[in-house]
Amino acid sequence: MDVIAAIATGSAATAIGIVRVSGDGCFALCGRVFRAAGGRPFAAQEPRKMVFGEMLDRAGRVIDRGLAVRFPGPGSYTGEDCAEFHCHGSPVVLRELLSALFAAGARQAQAGEFTKRAFLNGKLDLTQAEAVADLLEAETPAAVRQAAGQLSGALSRRVAALYDGLVDLMA
Q1: What are the strands of the beta sheet with 51-56, ordered from one edge?
Q2: What pTM did the predictor assign?
């Protein structure tokens, strides 16, 4: 699949903002917009370990300094190679980083596309994918607990047990 990128945090100015990237070839692409302080290429960084460095715009100028992390597939959220950039949460900084990723070859992720890829790659079942949307839209602590339980696979396990029982009865 192609490489997708999106701002993972809200549109308001915050202390920290996150840009997420996923897809085959995303590590090489991310290496064009991130320069690690230690000089090691992005694709050679240790998996799941935050690395400090500079985020670069499409012309190679420094946008911000912050952290980057890579998550090799299939052990990532989407099941594909993924990366995240954690920088200052200025909407301008985040848009500039996203623009640099687009210039490097990524495209804008559609709403819910990271979760859709997780579903298509077998990382989430349908009830878990729906739970992500429920969790994002939760307005009460009870709604959060319900969605979190569904996301953990509790509903899927109960349905599977019922299904197995029905299969036994039919046999």
Answers
A1: 34-36, 51-56, 62-71, 82-89, 14-22, 4-7, 107-108
A2: 0.85
